[in-house]
UniProtKB/TrEMBL annotation, chain A:
Name of the protein this chain belongs to: Transport permease protein
GO cellular component, one term: ATP-binding cassette (ABC) transporter complex
Entry membrane topology: Multi-pass membrane protein
InterPro entries: ABC-2_transporter_component (IPR051449), ABC2_TM (IPR013525), ABC2_TM_bact-type (IPR047817), ABC_2_transport (IPR000412)
From TrEMBL, chain B:
The protein, known as: ABC-2 type transport system ATP-binding protein
GO MF entry, a single one: ATP hydrolysis activity
Highest rank taxon of the organism: Bacteria
The species this protein was found in: Micromonospora matsumotoense
Positions in coiled-coil regions: none
Presence of the UniProt keyword ATP-binding in the record: yes
Signal peptide location: none
Domain ABC transporter: 5-228
Ranges that cross the membrane: none
Keyword ATP-binding belongs to the record: yes
Entry keywords, A to Z: ATP-binding, Nucleotide-binding
Length: 251, 246
């Protein structure tokens, strides 16, 4: 990995994003619109005894989930375009290292995820009165790690898609089970044993648990840091797998 | 080692199809070598083998004295893919500057490459909004930007108007005169006459490796298209064509 090449690649990906104003607008605005829906959905729902208000519980998980699903989609399409347009083949004939490219995507879309999560969190806290015992900064940190995880999974999955249609189909395959089993709909402890086992190997479960820790505790807990580490580790593992799918030589 | 490229007994299969079937040829330094052949003859595969992105079954490809694809060569070889491989959502200048940075070159080099391909006026335009010909010249600028010793160009003049095509060929020869080696593919035979040397391939086999004049002399016709037809017909029964490497 070379710092100048990594920086140039990150800058190039962000510049591409900047030229696509509609995508930027959607990235920034859509989570807030969806949070508005969630806010009014739960506006009249009473809080169960001893538990956070329903909006707080759902919105907190949503703040981590938006960057996850959006960055997964954006990255798998972007990387697929690199593969189909021939730019990837050309890049691999230059001094660019595979990790320069993969980390470039991780940093660029990770930053985009931070911006998205920050705007969404600002709306959640200030417009909709989200309350968490812990700091909002930790929520954004977890959202950022989630975004990087999504980028890494997107980079990896793009290797198995030949068309945009196929790439989009990986979204329900990779994202939906993680959302269903992350503990948002049914607490993980109340699921059947085999579902818990599946949930235990899905990284989003740990991101959601970390967010719930921030919601419930004023200070960052050991469990939260453990969970963040697991999500970051999963992101790193997915990046390594993605690197294995990038071959300089192909048939 | 005087040759820029030396290919020996190169065999490449793609899927179940044999695309290159024992190619052997050399490309001299500081000249424009044309790689001619019909669509599907294996030109792109041979070029991909030279730049080191093609998996090969057997044989060797030596580029600038090193095995093709060696990390060190990535600074010394420029490659233009057949489809314009530039970012449609970046401007021409941003594309050129990105590829310049990858080669460790300053932005000024990128701007010069953009001017060299006649896109100075469109430098600030998004590549996605360019015409097909402009887009492929943007891609060409990105291949030229590092001033590589060897430039591999896969059909660089497709879709260009005749004046621009002449300009581009003049530029290729200027580069060659300065010592750069160019390997340029085309399926248009009238471009063959513009090359210093010719490699003609058909169905994965090399059927000629010589200068345009020698090809004309060997076949007894002036028109290179006709000359190639004769070589192809002769190749069916008699494989002894000009300069084919054993």
């Amino acid at each position: 990995m070379k710092p100048t090449i990594l920086a140039a690649t990150t800058g190039r990906i962000l510049r591409q994003l900047r030229h696509d104003r509609r995508t930027v607008a959607l990235l920034v605005v859509v989570p807030t619109v969806l949070l508005t829906l969630v806010y009014y959905m739960y506006a009249d729902q009473p809080a169960p005894p001893g538990q956070p208000a329903p909006f707080d519980r759902v919105a907190l998980v949503m703040l981590g989930f938006f960057p996850f699903i959006i960055m997964f989609l954006v990255t798998s399409i972007a990387m697929l375009r690199e593969r189909t347009s021939g730019t990837l083949e050309r890049l691999l004939t230059t001094p660019l290292g595979k990790l320069d490219l993969l980390f470039g995507y991780g940093i660029a879309f990770g930053l985009a995820g931070v911006v998205q999560a920050t705007v969404a969190a600002a709306a959640a806290y200030w417009l909709f009165g989200l309350t968490t015992a812990g700091a909002a900064g930790l929520v954004i940190l977890i959202a950022a790690v989630n975004a990087v995880l999504a980028v890494a999974l997107g980079l990896f999955c793009s290797a198995f898609a030949r068309t945009e249609f196929q790439a989009v189909q990986f979204m329900p395959v990779v994202v939906a089970p993680q959302l269903l089993l992350c503990g948002l709909f049914v607490p993980r402890g109340q699921m059947a044993g085999w579902l818990q086992a599946v949930s235990d190997v899905l990284p989003l479960s740990y991101a959601v648990e970390a967010l719930q820790e921030v919601g419930a505790h004023a200070e960052p807990t050991g469990l939260m840091w453990r969970d963040v580490t697991i999500v970051a580790g999963a992101a790193l593992a997915a990046l390594v797998l993605a690197a294995a799918t990038l071959r300089r030589r192909s048939g | 080692m005087d040759d820029a490229i030396a290919v020996r007994d190169l065999v490449v299969d793609r899927g179940r199809r044999r695309v290159l079937d024992g190619i052997g040829c050399t490309v001299p330094r500081g000249a424009v070598t044309g790689l001619l052949g019909p669509s599907g003859s294996g030109k792109t595969t041979l070029m991909r083998a030279v730049v080191g992105v093609q998996t090969i079954n057997s044989g060797t490809v030596t580029v600038l004295g090193r095995p093709a694809g060696t990390a060190e060569l990535r600074h010394r070889v420029g490659y233009l893919t057949q489809a314009p491989s530039v970012y449609a959502d970046l401007t021409v200048r941003e594309n050129a500057r990105y590829f310049a940075t990858l080669q460790g070159r300053p932005a000024a080099d990128a701007d010069r490459a953009v001017t060299d391909v006649g896109l100075a006026a469109a430098a600030g335009q998004l590549v996605g909004t360019l015409s097909g010909g402009q887009r492929s010249r943007a891609s060409l600028a990105c291949a030229l930007v590092g001033e590589p010793e060897l430039i591999v160009l896969d059909e660089p003049t497709v879709g260009q108007d005749p004046v621009l095509r002449a300009d581009l060929w003049a530029r290729f020869h200027a580069l060659a005169a300065a010592g750069t080696t160019l390997l340029v593919s085309s399926h248009v035979m009238d471009e063959a006459a513009r090359c210093d040397r010719l490699l003609l391939i058909r169905q994965g086999r090399l059927i000629a490796d010589d200068t345009p004049d020698a090809v004309r002399a060997a076949t007894g016709v002036d028109d290179l298209e006709e000359a190639f037809l004769r070589l192809i017909r002769a190749g069916g029964t008699d494989p002894t064509t000009t300069g084919e490497t054993a």
